[in-house]
Amino acid sequence: MGRSTTIMFMLPLGAAKPEVLLVLNHSDDIHTVAELNRLNLMVIRGYTYNSNTINIIAKHPRAIVINSLEVGLQMLLRKRGDAIVTTAEYAKIRIQDKPEYQNQFKLASLVFQDADPRFIHLALSKASPHAHLRQSLEKAIASMIADNLVD
């Protein structure tokens, strides 16, 4: 048997969530990709968007690259952007963190679905001093999934 070239254990956590469009509460709803063309659309630098979303962003005439969701939320409040492409979970966490964000934003009807499902994994290096914990991690993840603690 030859030497394995795999350097990581990939422990599955679940399916990746689709991206959503976050807008100010008083903004008109967005239902279609065509409606995006009238918006200054903010996208987060370094975020791994699904391939369908990347294609939409690449063709968008007024995309604004921002450094973080926090920056985007501030820009929305100051009306320096019209919408942010993010995930509902990420937006919910950031909005809950700050009282001044409560009741300021909503999710538009448009959801960015990818044609192929994507998955989230926990990577554990085989060279890690903790690699021996792989089975314990797999059991803990399975337990968390069974208890609906992982979305």
**What is the CATH homology-level superfamily of the largest domain?**
Periplasmic binding protein-like II
Question: What is the CATH architecture descriptor of the largest domain?
Answer: 3-Layer(aba) Sandwich
**Overall number of strands:** 7
Report low-confidence residues grouped into runs of 5 or more.
Answer: none
Query: How are strands sequenced across the largest beta sheet?
Result: 4-3-5-2-6
Largest sheet: 5 strands, mixed
Helix content: 25-40%
Mean pLDDT: 89
The Cα radius of gyration reads: 19 Å
Silhouette: elongated
Task: Tell me the count of domains.
Answer: 2
- The number of helical segments is 4
Class based on secondary structure composition and strand pairing: alpha/beta
What's the level 1 CATH class of the largest domain?
A: Alpha Beta
- Might you state the CATH topology name of the largest domain? D-Maltodextrin-Binding Protein, domain 2
Question: What this model shows, in words?
Answer:
The chain is of the alpha/beta class. The chain has 2 domains: 1-13 and 126-151, no CATH class; 17-112, Periplasmic binding protein-like II (D-Maltodextrin-Binding Protein, domain 2). The protein contains 4 helices and 7 strands; from the N terminus they run E-E-E-H-E-H-E-H-E-E-H. It has helices spanning 51-59, 69-77, 88-97, 134-146, and strands at residues 8-15, 19-24, 41-44, 63-66, 83-87, 105-112, 119-125. It has a 5-stranded mixed beta sheet. It has a two-stranded antiparallel sheet with strand order 1-7. Strand 3 (41-44), helix 1 and strand 4 form a beta-alpha-beta unit.
